[in-house]
């Protein structure tokens, strides 16, 4: 089902993703963050649904379906590097800050900071070309918003 998109992500130089593919890749990255602590809580799934519904103008049913597709894709995908590299190629810097904010929302959704979530978030921010300072600012904004 995701073979074409995964092939694009696995290329040495990823091609620009179509908007639907970029949306799926971003949602899969959100799922990866949520699963990284081996506790994929309902509150994290709900947060992913609300983020994608808001970001992409989806109804809740469509957001749940997107998350379910992203869960399947995340399980098949080999590493975080390729998700973030493809997203970086498809998303302007200002919007990548929004990606980092979304990742922080998911990581903070269960009320606990986890080392594995922090590590993937730091890696993702770096691979997206978002500075540590901008990522820290994004985290603080999301902590205040929650």
Automatic annotation (TrEMBL):
Which segments constitute the Co-chaperone DjlA N-terminal domain?
23-139
InterPro entries recorded: DjlA_N, TerB-like
Judging by the UniProt lineage, the source's domain of life is Bacteria
Q: Which CDD domains match?
A: terB_like_2 (cd07313)
Q: What is this protein called?
A: Co-chaperone DjlA N-terminal domain-containing protein
